[in-house]
Amino acid sequence: MKIISWNVNGLKSIIEKGFLEEIISQDPDILCLQEVKSTEIPEIENYISYNYPASELVNLYGTAIYTKLEPISVRKGFGDKEFDAEGRVIRMEFENFYLYNVYCPSGASSPERLDRKYRFYDGFTKYVYKSNKPSIICGDFNRISAEIDAKNPKNIKGKSGFMPEEQDWFKEILTKYVDAFRKFHPEGDNFSWWPNRKGFREENKGYRFDYFLVSNTFENTLTDSYILKDQMGSDHAPIVLELNSCPVCGTVNNNDNEFCYQCGIKII
């Protein structure tokens, strides 16, 4: 199974420039989008679509998912009216896992916005921790997990994106979840977002704001995770997660499973 997550910073522009077609050519089983900024999204052949736009500021925020696999259930929002009005979280339930597509607030413009960001983290974490199945969380977290996730960490230290409170949150969640990209790529200079300034992307002066966080109990299902650094269209690059899954029913299995535990078909 291949899951792609991408903050498109406006889906309309991505479509007009042909970049959505480029991502679909990667043949993801599930495509999670953030900052969609649209009340309507196009249908794509062989995919089921779910759009969650902001209810008031429709030209901001919003998340969407395209999936080849039909979910058992879909929930939009996590029960907080303030953040749910911005379309920040979609949860999809499958046979043996939940998938969360999330767009976290930035908190960069003022202390009040930073406090709001912390409240989002707190509410979202409580929501996710109620899951009765392993979870995959993907999206734009608007923060780095460690100094290795920034080209120049001194430039962001003590600011939104790398505050001590944010680091404490990340350390706590990583007691229960695996940073999938770091599992396969422990080296530095791997970023997913670059400021819109001349030469920053070309010189790789960026940050890793986009993540796949996977329940520890699901770690043995992972086969790869990487960043599509050359994909243009947004200030973010798409990120990819690959898992061992059944080609018939889509159930995710441990990498040492010879047969799918759900439908029994041989997968190795």
UniProtKB/TrEMBL annotation:
The record marks 142 as: Transition state stabilizer. The active site is at residues 103, 140, 236. Mg(2+) binds at residues 7, 35, 140, 142, 235-236. Residues 4-236 form the Endonuclease/exonuclease/phosphatase domain. Its cofactor is Mg(2+); Mn(2+). The record marks 210 as: Important for catalytic activity. One of its GO terms (molecular function) is DNA-(apurinic or apyrimidinic site) endonuclease activity. The keyword Metal-binding applies. Probably binds two magnesium or manganese ions per subunit. The record marks 236 as: Interaction with DNA substrate. Keywords: Hydrolase, Magnesium, Manganese, Metal-binding. GO terms for biological process: base-excision repair. Belongs to the DNA repair enzymes AP/ExoA family. This is Exodeoxyribonuclease-3.
